[in-house]
User: Fold this.
Amino acid sequence: MCFKNVLVGAALVVALIAPASKAQASARAPLYFDAGSAAVRDDTRAATLARLDGLGVRALRVSLVWAAVAPSSSSPARPAFDASDPNAYDWGGYGRLIDAAHARGWRVLVTFTAPVPRWATAVHADQVTRPSALEFRMFTTAAGRRFGDAVSAWGLWNEPNHPRFLRPQYVKGKLTAPVLYRALHLAGVRGLEAAGQATDVFLGGETAPGGDRRTSVPPLQFLRGVFCKGCARLRIDGWAHHPYANRKGPYYVPPDRDNVTIGVLSRLERALDAAGRRSTPVWITEYGVQSSPDTTLGVPLAQQAEYRSLSERLLRADPRVAALSQYLLVDDVALSGFQSGLLTSSGRAKPALDEFRLPLSARRSGSSVLLWGLVRLATTATRVEVLVRDRTAARSSVVTTRPTDAVGAWTARLGYRAGRTFRVRWTASDGATYVGPPVRVYG
Assistant:
């Protein structure tokens, strides 16, 4: 959530639907949506959830800030209270959000995150340095008791390889963050189990995509520290990661091989295998594409939509990916925040909003273009219209219609022509028609 490395006349060949294959094994993986403060705030929650519902979202990620709900969180002195009692906390907008999502029948993933109460740290100097595992265990017990009926998956710490969320990362050059995280993860699991949540999914990692080896730890170095030789085996039902890329797009390859952006997710999978976790699935619990007005990391609005679809295709082509997530819905106002939303900070729709309903990626393969798309609103097999527009054409025209599978996924092979763009149109059973933005061919 904080690591801001975010991420471009031949005749038509007869369109072909690719057969069901391993490449589509993740088509059913749920897509969680983290709408950030827009979902937590009382004045914007209802509109936010209604917007998500209209986008086909059926799963929610909530980053639960410990310090935001705990009593006297800015005080170095611990108040006298039963920290495992959910009634001792002011759950505020978090509670109302999770209750509302549960009422809609949505899946809910809660990720525990810093800052923490000052009194719950080792020396009470700040709200991220050496959080108390004992206090965290009691907090997770309280959260499990409060939200147990609504939550089915838990992330035990957000981006523990980043100093904004856990310190110290290193001490005199020695790797420290994984040791602190192991204690917190174990405590969190025990706390949730004590709350009766033993059958839920417990996620490890939730790592940021990169580290500089000075103030932050590269995610694979962090992973090796967590699964250290001779260490007790932790209960980790899935390893979570945030594979943000940069302006070079989803196929960018970080030079440091311990950093993992979306185009090199196989690095993470090989590291899990080497750590003896071959059966551990990968959860992408946070992802998004930065756009303008961020002039440092953001891409143009049309390219954001294209990159987002290409990214989702990459994730859904990976059979080890068990879940994925979009972050955010509305851009942060401050440019120091995230501009990965589907709406600008003023609420204006970006092309990515229509793209999110109808993701479409176009990749060149010789004289052909391989299309992959998804109808997110689909609840059963349906059909889509594929439109093309050549460089000299005044408008797009329908070139073929294609059937989808039961979850709305479809593929096709069409002819390549320089400058040609593609888009998709879908008509729902109630007659409503949706059209995605035009996308260019990559590769």
